[in-house]
């Protein structure tokens, strides 16, 4: 029995439509390949699916651009690239205008080109922009200073804690115990000298700790004074 005629109309079912598209596309590509091989023809097929997915067949040793160039050359009076070239020129002109405008704004922001017929309103607007920019920069600077200061203070507290722990450990080891002092063949004088030296070392470490803390307090007051002066200048 022969195959019945298929009515040519849109297939409503999306799945059936995709299956039919794939089968017939492969069939067309197969016929195009046979035509190219059997007849030494230059064949180029381009098709797009419902989802804008492109499928292409091109004869071996040929490119789509060569086919389009030959098509344009054959017709003679059609330039397929001119409209695209004109759009590219228009886009290039817009980009050049934007670039020129940005360069001009940069010159104005660094104090150059202010004599280029700028009106009072333009100068006033430029001044407001600069003041706003300076405020943002100063705010960011203070944030960086505060972050670094907090980090340094944490490091100082950590070092002070380590120093205190070491001093406590040293103090515990320097406590006068008979079995600790009489280590040099039971010589009491050596033990007393060792104990006095340890006490002097501990006192010196304590003194240095107080000096360091006093220095850090003075530095904090100076930093606060600098920040106050910066705010007044702002």
Helix and strand arrangement:
Layout (H helix, E strand, L loop, with lengths): L13 H26 L4 E5 L5 E5 L5 H12 L6 H28 L10 H54 L4 H4 L6 H46 L1
Antiparallel strand pairs: 1-2
Helix pairs in contact: 4-6
Summarize the structure.
The chain has six helices and two strands, in the order αββααααα. With 234 residues, the chain is mainly α. Helix 4 runs antiparallel to helix 6 (188-233).
Characterise the protein shown here:
This protein is mainly α and 234 residues long. It has 6 helices and 2 strands, in the order H-E-E-H-H-H-H-H. Strands 1-2 form a two-stranded antiparallel sheet. The longest helix has 54 residues, at 120-173. It is elongated, with a radius of gyration of 44 Å. The relative contact order is 0.04.
Q: How many strand segments?
A: 2
Which structural class best describes the helix and strand composition?
Answer: mainly alpha
Main sheet makeup? 2 strands, antiparallel
Mean pLDDT, rounded to whole units?
77
Principal-axis shape equals elongated
What is the spatial order of strands in the main beta sheet? Answer: 1-2
Count of alpha/pi helices: 6
- Helix and strand element order: HEEHHHHH
Terminal Cα span = 96 Å
Helix content estimate: over 70%
Low-confidence stretches: 176-186, 229-234
Return Rg in Å: 44 Å
Percent strand: under 5%
């Amino acid at each position: 029995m022969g195959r019945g005629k298929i009515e040519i109309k849109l297939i409503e079912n999306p799945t059936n439509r995709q299956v039919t598209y794939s089968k017939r596309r492969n069939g067309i590509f197969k016929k195009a390949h046979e035509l190219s091989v059997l007849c030494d023809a230059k064949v180029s097929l381009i098709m797009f699916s419902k989802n804008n997915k492109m499928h292409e067949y091109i004869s071996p040793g040929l490119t789509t651009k060569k086919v389009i160039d030959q098509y344009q050359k054959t017709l003679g009076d059609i330039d397929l690239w001119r409209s695209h070239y004109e759009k590219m020129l228009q886009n290039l002109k817009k980009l050049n205008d934007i670039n020129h405008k940005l360069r001009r704004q940069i010159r104005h922001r660094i104090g150059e080109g202010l004599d280029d017929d700028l009106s009072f309103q333009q100068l006033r607007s430029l001044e407001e922009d600069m003041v706003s920019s300076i405020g943002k920069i100063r705010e960011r600077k203070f944030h960086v200073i505060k972050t670094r200061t907090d980090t340094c203070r944490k490091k100082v507290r950590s070092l002070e804690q380590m120093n205190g722990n070491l001093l406590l450990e040293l103090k515990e080891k320097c406590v006068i115990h008979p079995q600790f002092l009489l280590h040099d063949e039971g010589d009491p004088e050596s033990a007393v000298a060792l104990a006095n030296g340890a006490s002097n070392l501990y006192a010196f470490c304590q003194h240095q700790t107080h000096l360091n803390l006093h220095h850090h307090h003075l530095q904090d007051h100076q930093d606060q004074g600098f920040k106050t002066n910066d705010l007044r200048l702002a």
